[in-house]
Amino acid sequence: MTTTTQTTSTTTEATGRRVPPMGGLNATLLKLEVRRLLRNRRTLIFAVIMPVAFFFLFGTGQSYSNEDAGHGNVAAFIMISMALYGAMLSTTSAGAMVSVERNQGWSRQLRLTPLTSAAYITVKVIVAMLLGAVSVAVTYGAGAVGGAHADALVWVETGLAVWFGSLVFAAFGVFMGYLLPSENVMQILGPVLALFAFLGGLFVPLDQLGHVFQEVAKVTPMYGLNQLVHAPLTGDAPGWGAVVNVAVWLAIFVGGAVWRFGRDTARV
Amino acid sequence: MSSTQTVRRPSGGAAVHTVTAIELMGLTKSFGNVHAVRGIDLTVAPGEVVALLGPNGAGKTTTIDLLLGLARPDAGEVRVHGLDPTTAVRQGLISAVMQTGGLLKDLTVKETLQLTASLFAGTRPVDEVLTRAGISDIGDRRVGKCSGGQQQRLRFAMALLPDPELLILDEPTTGMDVTGRRDFWNAIHEDAARGRTVVFATHYLEEADAYADRIVLVSHGKVVADGTASEVKSLVSGRTIRATLSDADPVVVQQLRDMDTAESVELRGDTLLVTSTDSDAVARHLLTTTDARDLEITTRGLEDAFISLTSDGAES
Question: What range does the domain containing A221 cover?
Fold first, then answer.
């Protein structure tokens, strides 16, 4: 036997072999996952081009752009909306990468490694949130050069709120990634996210819509988050309805992800 | 310091090198009404190269999934070096080259190996496995642009990373051309020569014959034969005796049929064909009591064994 040299290394395992810490989570894995994401041209479009383009389209050079919006101007208000839209697209598409990986048999391959399921999901969420942060930063950069004005603290508070709030959609992405077996999952999710954004009031203020629309909009996933992230700018305290909306949708998406994920990894 | 001798070795450590590589005990697995595995018992010793041979749908892939912990048996037990499969996988004791999939198209060959290596507590260097799998020249190529054979070598390189005691290959050469197949097997063979235990599933008889020390023939979810290639061949009742017999007397044919060891007796024109487990007795009889000439005795091939053992008693 040529294997005796290995058994002299110290562990408590009878075989002398070790298991990695943190379920296999490591910096190389994160680095390569980010690299994969950046190679995807669609990612760049979702995370950077769309929110920035929409900001310049709707937020600048309009008659209302420099009107007062509380602790800043309307351009800043629209910048926040577009950052939230970009972060939503980014985190959802990054989370939904699990769909592609299941499709290509990569999830199954990973089960032949020490990587635990919890570590895998953690990586997906971290990568999604990193991309979300890029999206927010770029959109805020566009805002800074494009005429958005607000108190310094408002920039920080709303930026963090948008980024942190997009966790809801990272969970949504992972959930959909497990639910939808399609390799082109974002082709389905793109229109769905646009609808969420519309009903959440990101593109058009909800009070310009009909009564029925307004009532329906209140129970959609972007409604509460949109109110929360703008609160530092407008100075209006968001209602409890907004908080409940965010909490419930977060619970639904996380619960759904856990449920589908459990089904997927259960050894049949 | 005289009392330290026994302390360093973990409990049970002495048994590590004598333990079996694989132990499958009474394994069964069904998918709905399909009984994929119907009671498989198998023990593989360290260092053996075993072919799991059987027709499509025989239960080979299911057996491998059970062995790797990708599926859970309905009944029975799987032990890999004395451990449950999941623990063995986590420790890098066992690795596998799967049939298809399991690769990310948007990574390069080298990145795939770096990623896989990062997941284990300790691995062989990436450059070393690239060389051993014969793909060091395509390290920077995107996986999606690699040919089927190159992807299979990449899977092999990934499997080598944890330096496993036990390597499992599930129909590894499906879809490869003849050259690719031969190159792949040469790489595997070189590796097995270093003492690694190798178990491969195949439905290619020649692969089992050429590369395995031991053939486990699986049919309808059961092991129907287990031994060296020649042992498995011999299970199919011996040999074929062929002779020329002019103006054959029906009595001669009847005499041959009456012999206990004769399995079939056939007369085609002047040519007599007898299959028998005791070819010597048939030959002696033909040469001493009849006019038979041009006598030929041939061993039936592995292919005959395969067909005979995997089709008979299919529903039992």
Answer: 23-263
| Nearest alpha carbon to residue A117 among A56, A69, A178, A46 | A178
CATH of B237-299, one of 3.20.20.20, 3.30.450.40, 3.30.70.920, 3.90.1300.10: 3.30.70.920
Q: Which chain B residues are Cβ-neighbours of A14 within 8 angstroms?
A: 10-13, 16, 82-83
What number is the ipTM of this complex? Answer: 0.84
Cβ–Cβ of B12/A14 closer than 8 Å? yes
Per residue in A5-25, pLDDT (tens digit) is 333 333 434 567 888 988 889
Q: Which fold has domain B19-233?
A: Rossmann fold (3.40.50)
Q: Which of A41, A113, A122 to probe by mutation at the B interface, max B CB count within 10 Å?
A: A113
Q: Considering only alpha carbons, which residue of chain B is nearest residue A265?
A: B70
Q: Name the minimum distance, in Å, from the CA of A208 to any CA of chain B.
A: 44
Tell me whether residue A249 is in a domain.
yes
DSSP class per residue in B24-72: EEEEEEEETTEEEEEEEEEEE-TT-EEEEE--TTSSHHHHHHHHHTSS-
CB spacing of A108 vs B98 below 8 angstroms? yes
> pLDDT tens, A38-85?
888 888 888 899 999 999 998 888 888 888 888 999 999 999 999 999
